[in-house]
Amino acid sequence: MLDKIQNILKEIETIEVKTKDQLENYRLRYTSRKGLLNELFEDFKTVANDQKRAVGQELNKLKTLAEQRLKDFTEAIENSESDAAGSATDLTLPQAPNFTGTVHPLTLVRQRVLEIFGRMGFSHEEGPEIETDWYNFTALNFAEHHPARDMQDTFFVEKKEVQKDDVLLRTHTSNVQIRLMERKKPPIRSIMIGRVYRNEAISARAHCQFHQIEGLYVDKNVSFKDLKDTLLHFAKEMYGKDVTVRLRPSYFPFTEPSAEIDVSCFICGGKGCNMCKGSGWVEIAGSGMVDPNVLASCGIDPEEYTGFAFGMGVERIANLKYRVKDLRMFFENDVRFLRQFEGA
Ligand code: DAH
Question: Which of 66, 137, 178, 207 is 20 to 30 A (C-alpha) from 253?
Answer without folding.
Answer: 207
